[in-house]
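Notes from the 1:1 (GR / supervisor)

We went over the backlog. Supervisor wanted to see one worked example end to end before approving the batch request, so GR pasted a single chain during the call. The sequence is below; no edits were made to it. Supervisor asked that the structure be written out right there so they could see what the output format looks like.
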Amino acid sequence: MHPGKIVQFERLVQEFRAWRAIPDSERAPAAAWWWGTAMELRDERAPMRPDYCAALDLPDGCCYADAAGKLMALIAPQASLASSARFPRKPAKPDEPEALPAPTKDESS
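Structure output shown during the call:
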């Protein structure tokens, strides 16, 4: 598998872990930006590492295509998109100010 796909997938797994750690009542919808990575991996039959399987709540020995199917099944039925500003949490309510992320070192110079 191409190393670029692995890097994208590793980022997705980290985001998925953070997303699942948020209580359901506070959790944003699944991230729509995961769709692209899932589409790229939908035919990839290489087995995933056990820690990826565990992070995605899949049995050991699953392949990347299995993960892609699970992700697409989470995203496809959604009626709204996640806000990238507060992801993995739901967007702030209209009467609450939206917390802006702190500038990165590159942005502040």
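Supervisor's comment: Residues 85 and 101 are 7 Å apart (CA to CA).
Batch request approved.
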